[in-house]
Each structure stands twice: as structure tokens, then as C-alpha cells.
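Request: Not sure, any thoughts?
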Amino acid sequence: QLQASGGGLVQAGGSLRLSCAASGRTFSFSSYAVGWFRQAPGKEREFVAALSQTGITTYYADSVKGRFTISRDNARSTVYLQMNSLKPEDTAVYYCAAGSTTNGLTLGGARYWGQGTLVTVSS
């Protein structure tokens, strides 16, 4: 099970850090690539960022490159999304996910999904 947190209301130009903690005795967090997706009102869910099992390989959507950073702490079974220089168009429900590969995650292929956390960026 994945549990996301950290969403909220922030002004444009501000920052937020989302967290997603994995739980479950049989869930081997370090075995999965992890990622974040978002869904804005009236739009389809879109890929935001992905990170490999070792934390070495990352992928970002062009819209967030240079502003968002994905990281993980395998000891805590947690993945983070640091979001800086937020824009109103970043407003969305953000979802964490885990899958077999980062490539697969970029295509929306996740095995596990967390519940969403709402991020609202005011102008």
C-alpha cells in the first residue's frame, strides 16, 4: 500500500514536498521503480517523474524539468517529490506509484498506486 501526503495550498513561486510511504510486510519497496503522476481538473492523468530502484536513473516530464526533484529513501520505504517554483498549472491531484521499471512508469504502467494528494497553486 502506498500513502501519499504533503499536498496543500501554496502561492505561485512557492515550494512543496510530497511524500509517499509504502507499507505492508510483503511489499519490497526497494525492488520497485517509483514515480509520481498528476491529474488536473478535467484532464487525464499524466506522468510527472520516475526514479529507478537504485535511485540513479530519473525521468521527468518536460513541464517539470528543472523545478521538481524525485528522490527515495529505501530504508524508510518512502519516495519524495520536491516541487519548487510552482505554477498555477501545477494544480492537480498528485499520485505516487510503483512499478517494475522507470520506462514502464513513464508510460503509465504501474503495479501499485497510492491515493492522491491535492496540490493547489494560487496565482
